[in-house]
Every structure is written in structure tokens, then in C-alpha cells.
């Protein structure tokens, strides 16, 4: 057999594989071209109630049944101007959810902020990424140095007079296990789905219960309990603010983008396994990301984003911001976007802007 004939036969043998690959890509491309969320934002009065009901049904699974949060104080530390406590709360699955709580020492009631931590493919720490723990934790200190300019966000807020709570999302911190890594996420997500749950829904439900815990504290002003998050925590923040009308204001740092922007070839949501913690089955057919965040209007929303952020295409971030602005017509002072030059991080300057924003609305 000649060499040319061998190459020709090899090409014929590979053709079905190539055809199948093209068929798969064509199917996905066609589906995406036809995609239009059923409940894309509309200016009419009926949109909000319908979209809210659908979002709550698809995101809050299992939700908050109103059962006791059964708080246990594990340790506390007097830090002069404020008190720090290590707590556990009862989560949406009935398990214990470790938390860190900061409370100003002065008389209340205090405005409060629920802090929501990032993903970061770092699972041994969660709440400690945002609130300085009661005992020295080099990993937490290094995280604050890398992403927050060396300042724990919780310290920034409590020093401004806010009570602050952060919990471990399922899979992080004390709710993880030794050695849990980014390649273990699919197994966790599948385990939960086989049991009729989904990872992102449990995270959202625990966030909802944590917000209720803050509102129930006697030294907290229940009418002024905001949410703030960075990266995946930003998604958790605008997601919770969208489905929970009791959230008074929202700051979301570096996670807002159109769904189309994140489904482009090579984008991070199509690589690895991290998207499982942020995706709700069925939600994409109903609402795009800015549609979901539009449920917050007319309550205050502040968004940070960066042209240098390699995780979110800047044009798709700007498109999401433009779409969102429509929902605040007549309430323009309650909606703000802040482009930053620092890429995917929430540094001291951004924290100062966020703190001033929250203080204004508190």
C-alpha cells in the first residue's frame, strides 16, 4: 500500500469523528442563536412579580423553611471597638454552618452586611477570606493580601459601624474536607443532583438563612441589612438580593456579565468544574444574569468591574450594566457602576467606595 493511500484511508477513518465534533458544535451554536430567556426584563408592572416567583422557585432549593437557626457561640474575642464571634447556625440541609460575626461595641441597632466569599479554587478557607479569624490563619492573611489589598473586608465594614456576618458555603472552610480540590467539584455536584438537590441552590438557600439570622439579631437594624460579595460572592450577592426583598442594598464586585459573554469559546465557565457551584438548572431558559439582578430595582445596587479582568469579557460586562440601568429608570441614584483598573480584585480603594455607598443607604 502506498503512503498516499494510507493517508487517504486514515482520513476516511477519522471523518466520522470529525463529523460528530462538528455536529456537536453546530448543535450548541444553533441552540445559542435561538436562545432568548422567556422572562427577559420588561418595563411593565407584571414582569417583576412573575420573574421573582420563577427565580425563587429555581434558585432557592431547598430554600428557607423558617425553622430555628439554633445559634451556638463557639468562641468570642474582644477587639476593642468591636466584638468578634465564631458561631454555628443551622443550614438549609439541617447541618451546622460555621460563621464569623463582628459587632460594633457601641449601642445599636447597627446596620449590617452579609459578606459572601469567593470561589477562588481555594476550599480550605471560606468565611476567613473576608473576616479575620479569631486565631492566626496564614492562608486567610495571604488571601486578603492577594485579593483585598491586605485588608480584611469585614474589618473595613465593622470599623465603619456595620455588624458583619460571613458563613462557609458548602464545600469551603469547615464545610469542606481535607484535600478537596477543583477536580472534586463534579463529584460533589453530581452527588447532590442524584439526591434531588443542586449545589448552587444549597449555597443560595444557606445565604438566605444567614441574612435572616442577621435581621433577627436584637442589636441589628433589620431594615438595613445589605449584602456584599467578591467574585463568586458577587454572584451570590446580587442573586440573593434579587430573590430576597428584605436585602436593603447590594454591592457586587467583579461578577456581572451577560450569559452570552460567558458562553464564548474559551471562557472560564466552559472550563474545569467551577461553574457547578453557580449554575441553577432551568434558570437560563427564564432569565439572563442582568435580568436576575434587575429584580433588585429600585433598591440600591453598586457593581464593580474591570477591563483587565480576564474572567469576564469587558464588552459583555458593559452590556450587562447597560441592560441593568433600564430597570432603575426614575431611581438612577440607586444604581451605580465602577470600572476599576486593577483587574479581578477588591482592593482597599474599592472597599472604601463600597463602604461609603452602603453608609449612604444605611
Automatic annotation (TrEMBL):
Pfam families to which the protein is assigned, alphabetical: Abhydrolase_7 (PF12715)
Family annotation (SUPFAM superfamilies): alpha/beta-Hydrolases (SSF53474)
Molecular functions per Gene Ontology: hydrolase activity
UniProt keyword terms in alphabetical order: Hydrolase
PANTHER family (alphabetical): ACETYL XYLAN ESTERASE DOMAIN-CONTAINING PROTEIN, DIENELACTONE HYDROLASE DOMAIN-CONTAINING PROTEIN-RELATED
Name assigned to this protein: Dienelactone hydrolase family protein
Organism from which the protein derives: Pelomonas cellulosilytica
Amino acid at each position: 500500500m502506498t503512503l498516499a493511500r494510507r493517508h487517504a484511508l486514515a482520513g476516511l477513518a477519522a471523518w466520522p469523528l470529525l463529523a460528530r465534533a462538528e455536529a456537536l458544535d453546530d448543535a450548541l451554536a444553533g441552540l445559542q442563536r435561538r436562545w432568548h430567556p422567556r422572562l427577559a426584563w420588561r418595563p411593565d408592572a407584571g414582569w417583576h412579580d412573575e420573574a421573582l416567583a420563577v427565580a425563587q422557585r429555581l434558585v432557592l432549593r431547598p430554600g428557607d423553611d423558617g425553622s430555628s437557626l439554633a445559634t451556638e457561640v463557639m468562641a468570642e474575642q474582644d477587639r476593642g471597638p468591636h466584638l468578634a464571634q465564631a458561631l454555628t447556625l443551622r443550614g438549609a440541609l439541617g447541618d451546622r454552618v460555621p460563621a464569623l460575626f463582628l459587632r460594633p461595641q457601641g449601642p445599636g441597632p447597627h446596620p449590617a452586611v452579609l459578606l459572601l466569599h469567593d470561589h477562588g479554587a481555594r476550599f480550605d478557607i471560606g468565611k476567613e477570606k473576608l473576616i479575620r479569624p479569631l486565631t492566626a490563619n496564614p492562608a486567610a492573611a495571604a488571601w486578603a493580601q492577594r485579593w483585598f489589598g491586605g485588608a480584611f473586608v469585614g474589618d473595613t465594614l465593622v470599623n465603619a459601624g456595620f455588624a458583619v456576618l460571613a458563613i462557609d458555603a458548602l464545600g469551603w472552610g469547615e464545610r469542606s474536607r481535607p484535600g478537596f480540590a477543583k477536580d472534586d467539584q463534579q463529584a460533589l455536584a453530581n452527588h447532590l443532583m442524584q439526591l434531588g438537590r443542586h449545589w448552587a441552590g444549597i449555597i443560595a438557600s444557606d445565604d438566605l438563612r444567614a441574612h435572616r439570622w442577621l435581621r433577627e439579631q436584637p442589636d441589628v437594624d433589620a431594615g438595613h441589612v445589605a449584602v456584599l460579595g467578591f467574585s463568586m460572592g458577587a454572584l451570590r450577592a446580587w442573586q440573593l438580593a434579587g430573590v430576597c426583598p428584605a436585602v436593603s442594598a447590594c454591592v457586587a464586585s467583579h461578577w456581572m456579565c451577560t450569559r452570552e459573554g460567558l458562553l464564548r469559546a474559551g471562557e472560564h465557565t466552559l472550563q474545569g468544574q467551577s461553574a457547578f457551584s453557580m449554575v441553577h438548572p432551568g434558570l437560563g431558559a427564564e432569565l439572563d444574569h442582568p435580568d436576575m439582578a434587575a429584580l433588585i430595582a429600585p433598591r440600591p445596587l453598586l457593581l464593580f468591574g474591570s477591563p483587565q479582568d480576564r474572567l469576564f469579557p469587558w464588552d459583555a460586562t458593559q452590556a450587562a450594566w447597560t441592560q441593568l440601568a433600564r430597570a432603575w429608570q426614575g431611581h438612577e441614584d440607586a444604581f451605580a457602576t465602577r470600572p476599576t483598573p486593577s483587574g479581578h480584585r477588591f482592593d482597599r480603594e474599592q472597599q472604601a467606595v463600597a463602604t461609603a455607598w452602603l453608609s449612604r443607604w444605611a
